[in-house]
Write a structure and sequence with these properties.
heterodimer, A: about 350 residues, alpha/beta, B: about 325 residues, Rossmann fold
Chain lengths: ~350, ~325
């Protein structure tokens, strides 16, 4: 049972130079008692090997649902992918039979979750859980799996791995548990790693350790990293490119330096402006007014219009497409030129 | 904003140990969690003292001690010269009126079965002499307006509000008794990023309007910097550095403060390759069994023999203008300009 690649998805670069992973016009709906919620509404992004793409958004923006759709771990029902493609090395994952998909999940596309304590099973030792990856996917023996688990715990720098391999999750601190999660996710050398708020539950000094570890692992293996977060600081530290999500759509896509210098969407600009800066001490912070939209009752036109300082009449009626505003940038705002100008001034 | 004059809150050598016990029938104490271990500071009228530190450093226990929700093992908390820590009954009720709290999680700190009016008006039920019964409804509506909520929503329930609005309800409740001090324990960390600035602005406005003094406990160092006049840094139950906001952020002298500040991701990608970052190794030791001498020495790159033997007191040291609890305190700028 030693299979290293799935026959249906070729290894190596896809024909035609397509990126490693492409999310193309993805729509995800949830059927609830109050009605149909369009959690993801036409999201497209791509990821290249060795690249870090940050997906930035608040709760309800659809950033985690998109990730779950890529992993194929959406609860169906109530969730349903109603349209779109997720191409991994050129093959649409959504069209693969479940069996083929499960050979990719965890092996070639892996994920780290926010809350390591609830993602780990409390009644098994961490060594057993890390080793499970090798037993299930590679048919390794118990003994070999444990040896691999110790190696991995060393690799994610858990001190005293040999002694701690028989400990249970509750015996580890939050930072160490997140390392265990990372060890499990990189066990099979995935080509894509999705990290969903990997450091949100952690203290800053531990966060710095974990982000450093992820960056190192990515450098070593040319793995593509999708980092889902709401933290503008973390994004600025590690991302190559950013996709900003709001109300189930991507509102801005840009290389990291461009968006911090000159955001082109009012929401992205508002978020950046509301970060407290040293020279604003004692002054009122810029605050985006209003609150995030209710997914059951989305505003007409552009879903940001009730909160937007650039709003014009057509924003209420026409939803802006994601305008290409440069070779590597896009903004879903009718008035992106004005926003860009405002960013310069 | 920093008001001078008499401190309204004086904390001296505050200590809180939680006993660790073993056995069910016969309980034996086998040790103690030293959650807060000898913390002293003053808070003046209209001033904001930020308290930063990581989980387990004792900052939330400190908040509970200030509110007299926990009794200290030793030490004192005085509000306007009156001892809180040992007050009981009517006396406790009177001093508590002057210090109120805003909690972290607006989803669990509001009773889902009470209307907003009942939640905000509850302090008047407990302190009946503050507002006569007929006047309470009006006072509640006023409070809702002050925190930027629609007074006509007084009969709604918490679930009908968003996270940011719920936090405003919590703030209105905190303001009801016209306290002089409000303890804010992570007041914005549970909120969406786009909402945090609104609540920070509200807190700043209320401070100006009512002359409030804040103890502002948070782990978001940029928010703390924005709102605080002075900042205290805690590590394993100890205050390791205390000074004016600029002193702590621009000229930190304690290695832990330096590591903490350098670990904060800066929301600006310019120059990120050259940024110097102090990565601490390992996790904080257990507060049940803290290291001898300086508690930070097990993770400190400056640790020497003296650090294991002698605990460095929090005091102003030569060459630095503010108090630091390090034998080798020296200024180092770690925050990028």
């Amino acid at each position: 049972m030693k299979k290293t690649s799935t026959p249906m998805v070729p290894a190596g670069r896809a024909p035609g130079g397509e990126p490693l992973l492409v999310v193309d016009d993805l729509h995800v709906e949830f059927t609830t008692r109050q009605g149909v919620v369009r959690a993801v509404n036409g999201v497209s992004y791509s990821l290249n090997p060795g690249e870090t793409l940050a997906v930035l958004g608040e709760s309800g923006s659809g950033k985690s649902v998109t990730a779950q759709a890529i992993m194929g771990i959406l609860d169906t029902p109530p969730a349903r992918v109603s349209r779109g493609e997720i191409r991994f090395r050129g093959t649409d994952l959504l069209r693969l039979p479940e069996e083929a998909r499960s050979r990719i999940r965890g092996r070639r596309i892996a994920m780290i979750f926010q809350d390591a304590l609830s993602a780990l099973n409390p009644v098994f030792t961490v060594g057993f859980q890390i080793g499970e990856m090798f037993r299930v996917h590679r048919g390794a023996s118990r003994r070999d799996a444990e040896k691999k688990a110790i190696e991995l715990m060393d690799r994610v720098r858990i001190p005293g791995a040999r002694q701690r391999v028989h400990d249970y999750p509750h015996q580890f601190s939050g930072g160490m548990r997140q390392r265990i999660m990372i060890a499990m996710s990189i066990a099979l050398d995935p080509e894509v790693l999705i990290a969903d708020e990997p450091t949100t539950a952690l203290d800053v000094t531990v966060q710095a350790q974990i982000m450093e570890l992820l960056a190192e692992l990515r450098r070593e293996s040319d793995m593509g990293l999708i980092l889902i977060t709401h933290d503008l600081g973390v994004v600025a530290d590690v991302a190559d490119r950013i996709a900003v999500m709001y109300g189930g759509r991507i509102v801005e896509k840009a290389p990291v330096h461009d968006i911090y210098r000159t955001p082109a969407h009012p929401y992205a600009k508002g978020l950046l402006d509301s970060v407290p800066r040293v020279d604003q001490k004692g002054q009122e912070l810029f605050a985006i007014k209003g609150m995030p939209p209710n997914l059951l009752d989305m505003p007409s036109g552009c879903s940001f219009h009730p909160r937007c300082p650039y709003r014009q009449d057509d924003c209420v009626t026409d939803a802006p497409p994601l305008y290409e505003i440069g070779p590597t940038r896009a903004s879903a705002c009718h008035y992106w030129r004005e926003v860009l100008d405002g960013s310069h001034g | 904003m920093a008001a001078m004059g008499e401190p309204i809150l004086e904390v001296r050598d505050l200590v809180k140990y939680f006993p660790l016990t073993r056995g069910i029938v016969v309980r034996k104490q086998i040790g103690a969690i030293r959650a807060v271990d000898g913390v002293s500071f003053d808070l003046r009228r209209g001033e904001t003292l930020g308290i930063v530190g990581e989980s387990g450093c004792g900052k939330s226990t400190l908040a509970k001690l200030l509110m007299a929700l926990e009794r200290p093992t030793s030490g004192s908390v005085r509000i306007n010269g009156r001892e809180v820590a040992r007050a009981r009954g009517g006396e406790l009720k009177r001093v508590r009126r002057n210090i109120q709290m805003v909690m972290q999680d607006p989803y669990t700190s509001l009773n889902p079965r009470m209307t907003v009016g009942d939640i905000v008006g509850e302090p008047f039920e407990i302190h009946r002499d503050v507002a006569p019964k007929g006047d309470r409804r009006r006072r509640v509506r006023e409070l809702l307006e002050v925190v930027g909520l629609d007074p006509d929503h007084v009969n709604r329930y918490p679930h009908q509000f968003s996270g940011g609005q719920r936090q405003r309800i919590g703030i209105a409740r905190g303001l009801a008794l016209r306290p002089e001090i409000i303890v804010c324990d992570e007041p914005v960390s549970a909120l969406d990023v786009s909402i945090q600035a609104q609540v920070v602005n509200l807190l700043a406005r209320l401070q100006d309007e009512f002359g409030l003094a804040y103890v502002f406990i948070a782990h978001d160092l940029s928010v703390v910097r924005h709102i605080s006049d002075r900042v205290g840094v805690m590590y394993l139950g100890k205050m390791v550095e205390l000074g004016k906001e600029t002193e702590i952020y621009d000229r930190p002298t304690h290695p832990y403060t330096q590591a903490l500040l350098s670990a904060v991701p800066v929301p600006n990608p310019e120059g990120r390759e050259r940024r110097e970052r102090i990565i601490l190794h390992g996790d904080p030791p257990s507060p049940a069994d803290p290291p001898s001498g300086c508690r930070f020495r097990t993770r400190c790159w400056k640790a020497a023999e003296i650090c294991a033997v002698e605990e460095p007191p929090l005091r102003i040291r030569p060459g630095t203008g503010h108090a630091s609890a390090c034998h080798f305190a020296e200024t180092r700028d770690v925050t990028p300009a």
